[in-house]
Amino acid sequence: EKNLICSFGASVYEDSYIPESILKNLDFLQVPYSLFNRDFEKTDLFLKSKKYNVDLQVRSIFCQGLILCKPDKLPNWILNSDKKIIEEINLLLNKKTYSILEFACSFIKKKEWIDSVVIGVTSSKELREIIDAFSLEKKIKNEKINDLCQDLSKKIKDPREWN
Fold first, then answer.
1. Which residues in the chain show pLDDT less than 50?
2. Could you count the other beta carbons within 10 Å of the beta carbon of residue 26?
3. Taking the CA of residue 146 as centre, how many other CA atoms within 13 Å lie in the half-sphere pointing to its CB?
4. Which one, 26, 43, 58, 97, has the greatest CB density within 10 A?
5. Can you tell me the distance from the alpha carbon of 158 to that of 89, in angstroms, rounded to the nearest whole number?
6. How far apart are CA 19 and CA 155, in angstroms?
7. What are phi and psi of 54, to 5 degrees?
8. What is the DSSP string of 117-157?
9. Does the predicted TM-score (pTM) go above 0.85?
10. Phi, psi of 25 (to 5 degrees)
């Protein structure tokens, strides 16, 4: 009533957290989405959001930094099966002319349904690197990496599972 709020949205982990009756009253919806976590694509929340003109923001596009970690720097709680997949991804990337940062940004840029991206950085250097990676004109494709990422466990995809 006092015009203090310009837009109103919600940040969710899963589509079950937001009923359509609430969704239709939002300006934006923020969901986790990354090379590692594509669960949002498997829901109908994407279609419902577009039906009601709700802007879709994605967060955790680097899976809170895990995507950018070298295999030997991964936290101890990561499952061995996930570590092996990440090692294989890094081996594939070592044969290419692009980094995991560039690949992860290109993956996000290809998704036309994304209206905006929310990122967190710890330094101006990190911000510059991310801006540079997003600025690359080439769209990087690597189906082998895409396929490998589909096999990652729920534990690595969802920070609520981290311990």
1. none
2. 18
3. 8
4. 58
5. 19
6. 25
7. -90, 120
8. E----SSHHHHHHHHHHHH--SPP--HHHHHHHHT--HHHH
9. yes
10. -100, 5
Amino acid identity at 63? C
Q: According to the model, what pLDDT value does residue 13 have?
A: 85
From CA 99, how far away is CA 57, in angstroms rounded?
24
CA gap 108, 112 in Å, rounded:
9
Residues whose CB falls within 8 Å of the CB of residue 74, separated by 6 or more in sequence, listed in order: 66, 83, 86
pLDDT at 31: 93
DSSP 49: H
Residue among 151, 159, 145, 147 nearest 82 (CA): 151
Distance of alpha carbon 115 from alpha carbon 85, whole angstroms: 30
